[in-house]
Amino acid sequence: MQSVGGSADQARPLFGGALSAVIPHSATDISDLREIPDNQEVFAHAHTDQSLIVELVEYQAQVADQDAVKYHFEDIAGSNKALEPGAFEVTSVVAVPKSELSLSQCSSAWMLTGTQCVSKFNEEARNTVTLHLGLLRLPQYSTDVLITFNDPQSISPDSSSAAAVGISREPWTVQDFQRLLQTLTLHNPGLFG
Protein backbone atom coordinates (compact mmCIF):
# COMPACT_ATOMS: atom_id res chain seq x y z
CA MET A 1 0.00 0.00 0.00
CA GLN A 2 1.40 3.38 -0.95
CA SER A 3 1.43 6.25 1.49
CA VAL A 4 -1.08 8.99 0.69
CA GLY A 5 0.12 11.06 -2.24
CA GLY A 6 3.27 8.97 -2.54
CA SER A 7 5.19 11.25 -0.15
CA ALA A 8 6.48 9.59 2.99
CA ASP A 9 6.08 12.78 5.00
CA GLN A 10 2.62 13.89 3.96
CA ALA A 11 0.21 14.49 6.83
CA ARG A 12 -2.85 12.27 6.87
CA PRO A 13 -6.25 13.60 8.02
CA LEU A 14 -7.50 12.11 11.31
CA PHE A 15 -10.96 12.31 12.87
CA GLY A 16 -12.51 13.55 9.62
CA GLY A 17 -9.79 16.12 9.09
CA ALA A 18 -10.10 17.79 12.52
CA LEU A 19 -6.54 16.62 13.22
CA SER A 20 -3.72 15.49 10.97
CA ALA A 21 -0.35 13.80 11.46
CA VAL A 22 2.36 12.00 9.52
CA ILE A 23 1.51 8.29 9.70
CA PRO A 24 4.43 5.93 8.94
CA HIS A 25 4.81 3.80 5.81
CA SER A 26 2.99 0.45 5.48
CA ALA A 27 0.09 1.65 7.65
CA THR A 28 -3.28 -0.02 7.30
CA ASP A 29 -6.24 1.98 8.62
CA ILE A 30 -7.97 -0.55 10.86
CA SER A 31 -11.31 1.26 10.51
CA ASP A 32 -11.33 -0.11 6.95
CA LEU A 33 -11.33 -3.63 8.44
CA ARG A 34 -13.46 -3.39 11.58
CA GLU A 35 -15.37 -0.90 13.68
CA ILE A 36 -13.22 1.41 15.79
CA PRO A 37 -14.55 3.65 18.60
CA ASP A 38 -15.22 7.24 17.50
CA ASN A 39 -12.49 8.54 19.83
CA GLN A 40 -9.75 6.44 18.18
CA GLU A 41 -7.78 6.24 14.95
CA VAL A 42 -5.99 2.89 14.72
CA PHE A 43 -3.27 1.90 12.27
CA ALA A 44 -1.51 -1.45 11.95
CA HIS A 45 1.75 -2.17 10.17
CA ALA A 46 1.09 -4.21 7.03
CA HIS A 47 3.85 -6.79 7.79
CA THR A 48 4.53 -6.71 11.54
CA ASP A 49 2.31 -6.90 14.60
CA GLN A 50 2.95 -3.22 15.38
CA SER A 51 0.12 -0.75 15.80
CA LEU A 52 -0.37 2.96 16.37
CA ILE A 53 -3.42 4.42 18.09
CA VAL A 54 -4.36 8.09 18.26
CA GLU A 55 -6.99 8.40 20.96
CA LEU A 56 -8.96 11.27 22.45
CA VAL A 57 -9.45 10.60 26.14
CA GLU A 58 -10.97 12.60 28.98
CA TYR A 59 -8.61 15.11 30.53
CA GLN A 60 -7.71 13.86 34.02
CA ALA A 61 -7.63 17.11 36.01
CA GLN A 62 -6.87 15.29 39.26
CA VAL A 63 -3.61 13.90 37.84
CA ALA A 64 -0.51 16.11 37.74
CA ASP A 65 0.95 16.62 34.25
CA GLN A 66 4.09 14.57 34.94
CA ASP A 67 1.95 11.66 36.28
CA ALA A 68 -0.77 11.73 33.61
CA VAL A 69 1.08 9.59 31.06
CA LYS A 70 1.70 6.92 33.76
CA TYR A 71 -2.00 7.09 34.66
CA HIS A 72 -2.93 6.29 31.05
CA PHE A 73 -0.22 3.57 30.81
CA GLU A 74 -1.71 1.84 33.88
CA ASP A 75 -5.19 2.25 32.41
CA ILE A 76 -3.99 0.46 29.25
CA ALA A 77 -2.36 -2.23 31.40
CA GLY A 78 -5.75 -2.76 33.07
CA SER A 79 -7.46 -3.06 29.68
CA ASN A 80 -4.74 -5.53 28.61
CA LYS A 81 -5.17 -7.54 31.83
CA ALA A 82 -1.47 -6.89 32.50
CA LEU A 83 -1.77 -5.45 36.02
CA GLU A 84 -0.28 -8.29 38.05
CA PRO A 85 3.21 -7.67 39.48
CA GLY A 86 5.87 -7.97 36.81
CA ALA A 87 3.37 -7.75 33.94
CA PHE A 88 4.01 -4.08 33.29
CA GLU A 89 6.91 -1.71 33.83
CA VAL A 90 7.61 1.95 33.06
CA THR A 91 11.19 2.45 31.87
CA SER A 92 11.17 6.19 31.15
CA VAL A 93 9.01 9.31 31.20
CA VAL A 94 10.25 12.49 29.54
CA ALA A 95 8.70 15.88 28.89
CA VAL A 96 8.51 16.88 25.24
CA PRO A 97 9.37 20.55 24.64
CA LYS A 98 6.46 22.41 23.05
CA SER A 99 8.95 23.85 20.55
CA GLU A 100 9.18 20.33 19.02
CA LEU A 101 5.42 20.00 18.55
CA SER A 102 2.97 21.14 15.89
CA LEU A 103 0.12 20.99 18.43
CA SER A 104 0.80 24.39 19.99
CA GLN A 105 -2.52 24.29 21.89
CA CYS A 106 -1.29 21.63 24.33
CA SER A 107 -0.38 22.72 27.85
CA SER A 108 2.28 20.01 28.15
CA ALA A 109 3.43 16.88 26.36
CA TRP A 110 5.02 13.70 27.65
CA MET A 111 6.53 10.50 26.29
CA LEU A 112 6.58 7.25 28.21
CA THR A 113 8.33 4.00 27.35
CA GLY A 114 7.32 0.82 29.10
CA THR A 115 6.57 -2.85 28.64
CA GLN A 116 3.48 -4.96 29.17
CA CYS A 117 2.96 -8.71 28.97
CA VAL A 118 -0.31 -9.04 27.10
CA SER A 119 -2.33 -11.66 25.29
CA LYS A 120 -4.37 -11.03 22.18
CA PHE A 121 -8.02 -12.00 21.84
CA ASN A 122 -8.10 -13.54 25.37
CA GLU A 123 -5.51 -16.15 24.40
CA GLU A 124 -3.45 -17.82 27.10
CA ALA A 125 -0.23 -16.99 25.23
CA ARG A 126 1.35 -13.76 26.46
CA ASN A 127 3.50 -11.46 24.36
CA THR A 128 5.96 -8.87 25.62
CA VAL A 129 5.09 -5.54 24.06
CA THR A 130 7.03 -2.30 24.34
CA LEU A 131 4.60 0.60 24.57
CA HIS A 132 5.63 4.09 23.61
CA LEU A 133 3.00 6.56 24.77
CA GLY A 134 2.76 10.19 23.78
CA LEU A 135 0.42 12.39 25.80
CA LEU A 136 -0.62 15.86 24.69
CA ARG A 137 -2.64 17.63 27.39
CA LEU A 138 -5.44 19.96 26.28
CA PRO A 139 -7.18 21.10 29.50
CA GLN A 140 -9.00 23.90 27.66
CA TYR A 141 -10.86 21.19 25.69
CA SER A 142 -11.12 18.75 28.67
CA THR A 143 -9.16 16.33 26.49
CA ASP A 144 -5.90 14.41 26.55
CA VAL A 145 -4.61 13.16 23.19
CA LEU A 146 -2.96 9.80 23.73
CA ILE A 147 -0.75 8.28 21.04
CA THR A 148 0.17 4.64 21.62
CA PHE A 149 2.82 2.74 19.66
CA ASN A 150 2.60 -0.99 20.35
CA ASP A 151 5.90 -2.63 19.42
CA PRO A 152 5.94 -6.38 20.19
CA GLN A 153 9.34 -7.63 21.40
CA SER A 154 8.74 -11.32 22.01
CA ILE A 155 5.76 -13.18 20.66
CA SER A 156 4.69 -16.46 22.20
CA PRO A 157 4.75 -19.28 19.61
CA ASP A 158 1.19 -20.05 20.77
CA SER A 159 -0.08 -16.55 19.97
CA SER A 160 -2.19 -15.80 16.89
CA SER A 161 0.44 -13.13 16.17
CA ALA A 162 3.25 -15.67 15.83
CA ALA A 163 2.69 -16.04 12.07
CA ALA A 164 3.30 -12.32 11.52
CA VAL A 165 6.72 -12.39 13.12
CA GLY A 166 9.87 -13.29 11.26
CA ILE A 167 8.71 -11.85 7.95
CA SER A 168 8.87 -8.30 9.23
CA ARG A 169 9.94 -5.89 6.56
CA GLU A 170 10.89 -2.38 7.59
CA PRO A 171 9.24 -2.30 11.00
CA TRP A 172 8.21 1.04 12.42
CA THR A 173 10.71 2.76 14.68
CA VAL A 174 10.50 5.06 17.68
CA GLN A 175 11.39 7.84 15.21
CA ASP A 176 8.18 7.06 13.26
CA PHE A 177 6.21 7.33 16.51
CA GLN A 178 7.96 10.59 17.43
CA ARG A 179 7.25 12.03 13.96
CA LEU A 180 3.54 11.27 14.41
CA LEU A 181 3.61 12.91 17.86
CA GLN A 182 5.49 15.97 16.61
CA THR A 183 3.38 16.47 13.46
CA LEU A 184 -0.03 16.09 15.12
CA THR A 185 -1.88 19.28 14.19
CA LEU A 186 -5.30 20.57 15.22
CA HIS A 187 -7.40 21.99 12.39
CA ASN A 188 -10.87 22.05 13.97
CA PRO A 189 -11.30 22.52 17.75
CA GLY A 190 -14.98 21.64 17.23
CA LEU A 191 -13.78 18.02 17.41
CA PHE A 192 -13.68 18.38 21.19
CA GLY A 193 -17.35 19.35 21.47
Explain the overall architecture:
- The protein has 193 residues and is mostly beta strands.
- Helices cover 13% and strands 36% of the residues.
- The chain has helices spanning 65-79, 174-183, and strands spanning 11-14, 19-22, 27-29, 40-45, 51-58, 88-95, 108-118, 127-138, 143-154, 185-186.
- The strands form two sheets. Strands 3-4-5-9-8-7-6 form a seven-stranded antiparallel beta sheet, sandwiched between helices. Strands 1-2-10 form a three-stranded antiparallel beta sheet.
- Residues 1-7 have low confidence and may be disordered.
Keywords:
193 residues; mainly beta; seven-stranded antiparallel beta sheet; three-stranded antiparallel beta sheet; 2 helices; globular; disordered N terminus; Ran guanine nucleotide release factor; guanyl-nucleotide exchange factor activity; small GTPase binding
